[in-house]
Amino acid sequence: MGSTEVTFQPGELVGGDFKLDIGTAGSMTLVLQSFLITAAFARDPVKITLSGGSDVRWSPPADYLSNVTLPILKSIGYNIELKLLQRGHYPRGGGVLEAVIHPVKDISPFNLLDLKVDRIKGISHAVKLPEHVALRQAQAAKDALQKAGYQLEIEVQHSDEYLSPGSGIVLWTEGEDGTGSSADGELINSRVGSSSIGEPGKRAEVVGKQAADELLYFISGNAALDKYMGDQIIPYMAMAGNSTVKTAELTEHTLTNIYVTEKITGRNFEYEGKLGEPALIRVN
Known about the structure:
A six-stranded mixed sheet has the order 10-9-5-12-14-13. Strands 1-2-4-3 form a four-stranded mixed sheet, with helices on one face. Helix 3 (131-147) runs parallel beside helix 4 (204-220) and helix 6 runs parallel beside helix 7 (252-265). The protein is of the alpha+beta class. The chain contains seven helices and 14 strands. 46% of the residues are buried. The chain has a domain at 119-220: Dihydrodipicolinate Reductase, domain 2, CATH 3.30.360.20.
């Protein structure tokens, strides 16, 4: 507490097999993201097996990482395999997430500006709870999206083989024709995603509708990235250089990430937009 300096002394990047047990329901996806940024530049593949929380508050659910974050990273040059072997919920965790990060030579500059929605997909799950919880979450999301003119293809997952009860839903968009581009001319398919986590006293219908309403909000902004991916993409923009993205909402998290990334990499970021509104973000 009270420190005003951070010393960063990077060593040689090495591949291999790593295991990390968070010990609680701490977010596995947040920990994994700290590996993803640089592990791809090791000479050999990096395999990471994490134990902890897969679907917890204030962090991207594992299904969001699989269906939003990683497809976007793949389109800019990353090659990552992700397997959710077991879900983990608050308070005991016990989830297991396995990732294999393959080496890449570099990341090409990219532009992700507009959003094209051809379909909406999702996963609704419930563990150590009645299956109807997951079904009600899914139906509430379907109803809300249908009112807005969209159809939802959703997978319902149910199991009792976990440490703590919990539920949640993740939704995302997909587009057939790329609306973004990389420096080598390849088209990039943008997508946005949303999620909601079940809690004691929170009806399943509320969980499903929250996720649907948030997704509709992101779609209305016609931005290639939702506010979560708008934050997550910043370090990758710095490594690629000369890139531009449009995010559905500029957040304090994004501005903080820009500040830290500039300090570490020496890159210069610019943005056009106000907090809480759609924004363009550029890096030179």
